[in-house]
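Q: What residues go here?
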């Protein structure tokens, strides 16, 4: 199964396209920007409680076959603006 590469931070809705150096994810692919992860979430996923780690980048030549998701996810989490 391929990572979704979600396009935004679930906390502040910042754009996080493939290659964003500040995108972090949990084991369930919940996606946040590094600022929200550190400042608002204590580097823990508010959905599952797991670690938030740097999201890998999909090589550009693979995006045609396996594009990043365009479905935005935004949830009201404690500590999020």
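A:
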């Amino acid at each position: 199964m391929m990572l979704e590469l979600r396009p935004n931070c679930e906390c502040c809705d910042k754009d996080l396209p493939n290659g964003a150096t500040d995108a972090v994810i949990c084991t369930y692919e919940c996606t946040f920007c590094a600022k929200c992860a550190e400042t608002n979430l204590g580097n823990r996923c508010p959905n599952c409680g797991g670690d938030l780690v740097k999201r890998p980048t999909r090589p550009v030549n693979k995006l045609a076959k396996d594009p990043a998701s365009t479905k935005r996810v935004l949830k009201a989490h404690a500590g999020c603006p």
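A: Context that may help when evaluating the design: The chain has a mean pLDDT of 94. The first strand starts at residue 23 and ends at 25.
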